[in-house]
Write a structure and sequence with these properties.
This protein is an alpha/beta fold and 263 residues long. The protein has one domain: Aldolase class I (TIM Barrel, Alpha-Beta Barrel). The chain contains 9 helices and 10 strands. Helix 7 links the parallel strand 9 (188-190) and strand 10. The protein is globular and about 80 Å long.
Length: 263
Amino acid sequence: MTETLTDKPTFKIGDKTLTSRLIVGTGKYASFEQTRIAIEISGAEIVTVAVRRIELDTTKDSLLNHLDPKKYIFLPNTAGCYSVKEAVMTCQLAREAGLGNFVKVEVIGDEKTLFPDNEATLEASKLLVQDGFQVLPYCTDDVVLCKKLEALGCVAVMPLAAPIGSGLGIRNPYNIRLIQEAVSVPVIIDAGVGTASDASRAMELGVDGILMNTAIAGARDPLKMALSMKMAVESGRLAFEAGRIPKKLYASASSPLEGMMDL
C-alpha cells in the first residue's frame, strides 16, 4: 500500500508520458529568474509559452534561455490570436523555431471575457491536426464542442473553469463532469483558477490535469503559491482516486454502536 501511494502513476497526453498533472504558464512574472524558480517548485513537466509574446531568437535575452528543454516539454500557445489564420500561422512559426508540434490552440472571440471563438477553434484545430500537430484546444465548457474537437483528432480538450485570469474558480462543475463522460481524450481544466482550493476542487472532479498562470505569477508570493498549487493538484487527485464519502443530510456515528457497554 505504501509503495502504491508514494509512486506517482504516469498518464499520457498525445505522445507525452507525464507524472505531474499541473501545467504552468510563463507570463506575468517579475523576472525570468522568478519564472524559472516558480516552475521548478511547481513540479510541472509541461510549460506553455505564448509564441506571439516571447522572443524566439535565443541569441537574444529570451525566456527560452532560462528553461531547460531537456527538463520541460514546451507547449507553444496562440494567445492573442483572433482568427484561424493567425492561430495556424503562429503554430507553424513555433514549429519552425524548434518548439515542436505539441501546441495549445486559442482563438479568442471576445476581448472583454477572452472567451474562445468556438467555430474558429474548430477550424484552426482541424487545419493543424491535418498539418501534423498534436492539438490541445482552449475551449468553452461545452460538451458538444469537446466531442467535435475529439472527433477532429485533438489529443486533449481544455475547457475553461472561468474567464482567463479571473480567479473565480470552477463556475460549472456539472459541465466539466459531462465533458469527462463524453470524451475519451484527457480533459485539462484551463483558466480561472485563483487559489489552491480551486485547483484541489478541480482535481477532485477527476479531470486529468489543470493549466494555470495568473494564479501563481500574480500571487503576492509566486514561489509559495507554486508550491501550494503543486500540493493542491496532487491532493485533489488523491482524493478523487480515494473516493469521497457520500453527503448526507443527517449525522452518522463514526464509531459502531454494536458492543457498547450498558451504563
